Amino acid sequence: MAVSGTVKKRLAWSTGLRALLxxxxxxxxxxxxxxxxxxxxxxxxxxxxxxxxxxxxxLTFGGVRSPTYWWDVIRSGLAxxxxxxxxxxxxxxxxxxxxxxxxxxxxEAIVFGAVEIYFVxxxxxxxxxxxPAALQGLLSVLFGLALIFWPLFFSLVGITTLGILxxxxxxxLGMFAWRLYRAA
Length: 184
Description:
Mean pLDDT: 91
Helix content: over 70%
Oligomer: single chain
Radius of gyration: 23 Å
Strand content: under 5%
Low-confidence stretches: none
Number of domains: 1
Largest sheet: none
Order of helices and strands: HHHHHH
């Protein structure tokens, strides 16, 4: 089935609009990373609130009681509570969320680096030279420590990196939209 020219043009316009919105949010992330991080956390709070309300709505009016009914009620209730807490105090929620997630990633980097150093040391007879793998493990541990000691800085660096990637992807998507439009 062939696609008509008007459908191709609509697809090109919608793809171009998506590229424009992605470009604007990417620029926003690069220029104001703290505000963008807060906006993402608030958006997550809204999603949690809506998911909790819809979950309770479905459990109430769905007509079917599953074996996990009470767990679903608890999950939906917690989603509503957390969503409301995020919307009541977005700044505190942003600080806690960013600190928690970056600290979790830091702990993971420390554990993986330490495990890598341990196994490289234990299996050093198998390796020809152990210093590259041991250095990689050491750098992973140091990176994890840096994440733990400066979580807010690294969350802002992560948002800025996300913004740069969004800008690059938006440029590619815009070029794709232009090619779609020209082909229509």
